[in-house]
Design brief:
Layout (H helix, E strand, L loop, with lengths): L1 E5 L2 H11 L3 E5 L14 E2 L5 E2 L8 H13 L2 E4 L5 H14 L5 E3 L7 H9 L6 H28 L8 H19 L9 E4 L6 E4 L2 E2 L2 E2 L5 H13 L22 H12 L3 H4 L1
Parallel strand pairs: 1-2, 1-5, 5-6
Antiparallel strand pairs: 3-4, 7-8, 9-10
Helix pairs in contact: 3-5
Length: 272
């Protein structure tokens, strides 16, 4: 007997129908273990090692999968093709003790050809994806477990902090504080239009008497203009630049509606 383990019980029945024969298909129902609910579960002093526990509602599922895997000659871990699915396959492999006879397969559609193709092309577990999922889970726990109680105490009960939103909020707040602390300063620019041999070009005053110079008020600007009008000045440097303008990406539904509304005054139903 060969065992296929998927996440969804409804998928399991369909896949078993497609494979038939000596194949048995069972479901994990998602993650079979996770960080503990009532404590941090991350060893900060030991390279942030996660401490996984098996929840009570998964013990029956694990026992069933363990009994089936002990009888199976080969096991296909067919959890979803993303980092969460990869982590679930790894957890199954570790908890069930099936590393020597388990392989990983993935498919993007529930059809007989796709499933049979996946069975014919097994691979090892991608530990880069597993590490990625574990890093995300640990970050969720570190931020949420330590910051959420503070939010509930200081702001409002029931609030929770996320690893992305919290950092983003800090960036927004820091930027807003910079804006509020900014003290505007007046400055003027002095420029001239020069007649070249082939093309006219604009020059910007940058130096005065060998030193960097930018007028800070109208009086300084008028003073230097009077000097420039009655004295020769030197074009010190000519800069040539090339600008590349890239084509905009194809429309998404939202950008199509935005453009049609702003440029053609169409309503969303008209656009669709």
């Amino acid at each position: 007997m060969e065992l296929v383990i998927v996440e969804s019980p409804s998928k399991a029945k369909t896949i078993e129908k497609y494979l038939g024969g000596s194949y048995r298909v069972s479901a994990s129902g998602g993650h079979i273990r996770d960080l503990p609910e009532k404590r941090l579960g991350v060893d900060i002093d030991n390279n942030y090692e996660p401490n996984y526990t098996i929840s009570a509602d998964k013990k029956t599922t694990i026992k069933k999968l363990k009994d089936m895997s002990d009888k199976a000659e080969k096991i296909y871990l067919a959890t979803d093709p993303d980092r969460e699915g990869e982590a679930i396959s790894w957890h199954l492999q570790e908890v069930l003790g099936i590393k020597n006879k388990a392989v990983r397969i993935e498919f993007n559609e529930i059809s007989a050809p796709a499933i049979k193709k996946a069975i014919a092309n097994p691979r090892d577990i991608n530990y880069n994806l597993v590490d990625s999922q574990q890093a995300r889970r640990v970050m969720d726990r570190l931020v949420g477990y330590k910051l959420s109680p503070f939010l509930c105490k200081k702001i409002k009960d029931g609030l929770s902090a996320g690893r992305v939103q919290s950092v983003t909020l800090k960036l927004v707040v820091d930027r807003e504080r910079e804006i509020e602390a900014f003290i505007p300063q007046e400055y003027w620019t002095v420029s001239a239009l020069y007649k070249g041999e082939k093309v006219d070009f604009k020059g910007l005053l940058t130096d005065k008497n060998g030193k960097k110079f930018k007028p800070s008020n109208k009086e300084e600007s008028d003073e230097v203009l009077n000097v420039l009008k009655t004295n020769p000045h030197i074009v010190k440097e000519v800069k040539r630049t090339v600008q590349s303008v890239h084509a905009l990406p194809p429309f998404t539904t939202s950008t199509l509606q935005q453009d049609a509304t702003s440029k053609l005054n169409l309503t969303s139903p008209q656009v669709m």
